[in-house]
Amino acid sequence: MSASRDQRSGSKRKILGAIRSAGRIARIDLAKKTGISQATVTTITAEMLLAGLIHEVPSDDEDRNARRGRPRVGLALRGEAHTVVGVKISHQSLSIVLLDFSGDVIGEHSAPLAAAVQPAVDVAEQLRNQIAIAAEKAGISMKQVSAVGVGMPGIVDATRGFVHWSPSLTERNQPFQDIAQDVIGCPVFVDNDANLVAMAELMFGHGKNVQDFIVVTVESGVGMGIVLGGELYRGTRGCGAEFGHTKVQLDGALCRCGQRGCLEAYVADYALLREADVGQNNKQSSARQIAVLLKSARDGDATAQSIVNRAGRMFAMGLANLVNVFDPQLIILAGERVQFNHLYADEVMDSIRQQIVQIDLPPPDIVIHKWGDLMWARGAGAFAIHGVSDMALKDLGEHAS
Amino acid sequence: MSASRDQRSGSKRKILGAIRSAGRIARIDLAKKTGISQATVTTITAEMLLAGLIHEVPSDDEDRNARRGRPRVGLALRGEAHTVVGVKISHQSLSIVLLDFSGDVIGEHSAPLAAAVQPAVDVAEQLRNQIAIAAEKAGISMKQVSAVGVGMPGIVDATRGFVHWSPSLTERNQPFQDIAQDVIGCPVFVDNDANLVAMAELMFGHGKNVQDFIVVTVESGVGMGIVLGGELYRGTRGCGAEFGHTKVQLDGALCRCGQRGCLEAYVADYALLREADVGQNNKQSSARQIAVLLKSARDGDATAQSIVNRAGRMFAMGLANLVNVFDPQLIILAGERVQFNHLYADEVMDSIRQQIVQIDLPPPDIVIHKWGDLMWARGAGAFAIHGVSDMALKDLGEHAS
User: What is the pTM of this model?
Assistant: First the structure.
């Protein structure tokens, strides 16, 4: 690709991104917002209109009144341009959403996985089957699906959809993107699940107008997604933004990863239940057992309080370290376990504030976002929209230049 | 500033940066490297030639032979365009370099500070006096100095040169940039000293061709500079990239910052000497006392070994956490204390490798860069060159558009 074509492709991405975040925007405002010349905006948006990615919409009345003149025509994404699927792979289940190109949800579906840990090809087959059911429920044929985004727990190199390790897969080093594309028959994009929660926050949630923020997810494990300058930060080898296995104690508690002193070894379900001496083979779900432990703590049981209290303090120490290193605008706590409040109790928040570097400016905001698996799936769908957009914009270039 | 002018200013910065990193480059290669159209490259470089920021240089023989035709004309920075000063403020001394616009050192000077902790205006006055001496030594008049860059230990918001806190200043919250500009009489740019080591590595050192790297400085304290995507990362409130005060132990050793469990409380000079029960009022310098402690450890003294060993393990834990969070290409260890090897002994390096997330790819490179205070000052000079370039490019825009 020549250098100027490379620049042109950057401009196309910028313009599409600006239309997406604005919802509806006039060409002249698009030029202002992106810093791209009006002539280039006109050319590129003409190509996008022709390709059906965007459409013209009349400006609203307010705008018309304000200008007292000829109504300005706005540009908006054309939802019908593409249908994508987003999937969250959880411990023992799949959560699926169907999104149109503008990100609106047009279908939802959940299903159990055959097993918690499986070969990659088995996971891919269950994905294909459940996506087909989800599509049928939404009245959409599989042929209409442009791409599938998958959020997978573990260490994932998203640039090539390569899974270094996942608790859901029996084998390490799986080219899951390739495997799933073969089985499903359409483009598949794979990333770490917490990264995709960050992407969902960026596209649909609390991060919409924030340049630098961190999402920390608390489920059975602890995950993180980092957004810097409005983009996901993934690291050099594709395994950055690891938080659960950062160390909070030298030679500390044994973690299920095999190392000692990881944050997860103090905060995750298994860590709390190990201390509470509740066998994990207990027939109750670990979520239920955690609920019982937290209730005991609230009811004044000293052992339960000691366990929960230390988890909160270790979590605060880890978050304070993130604030010291990144100095973000915002931290978003998300995930199934934020239904319990022990990790963002007042004492935890106070402890964070006490452990960050003290300057005479307020610390970053910390917001709690209680959303379910379908919202995680929506993040995976957002990643698929990203991938589809890149492919569509590349095609534009092929025809036009 | 209009949007298109904003874009134009981005292009100018890109072009100047590309000329700087290439040393000498033909216009056509500049267009390729930056992704900016040849027409724009021609216009902008013509303005830069007119303003005297760059000059034309003949291409070298190798290139001429390779092309067998008319020699291509290269563009290079014009060193004489500006003279800048870089200053490192250390515990009890100032280190000063004079650089030309291309970054070449044209003078050096060191001097003691009147006291280790002083009012901002006193520091500024000593800066002015010592810069004058440095300039005189180099045969340069103060009027020729276009700007001064200052590397200051502590928490600094570089965007406005505001010092939230510094061990060198008696008062918190000092607008040091404004104070120093008034006293010195030319533009002053102020940043955290470790950030400026990172900038020096980016412009002159191991980071020249690396997009994502981290510099960790070990002196009497522990500092960090983060480069992501080829640019310094400073955080939202201007106090990011804090490493020495990240916590490595819940309720751990007392740090001189007043908090508990900071990495510095295990690794810094004062921490080692506190454990060794060597009073800091000892007449020997702390560097000398540290040397004695390390020799005792090497000679088999069990207490000394225990102290040094734990410092190394805490340091390894902190570095492993950085690798987990950032997944950088490269980590550079720099600063006065890397003359001692206890923080990068084989066991420390092994310990880092054991505590990072295990994937089947090699861990990031860690290099040791033993450089002195004058190299830190060169980083401050690089920051001044940055500032001067921005001002010069802004002027270009004023005349041309």
Answer: 0.88
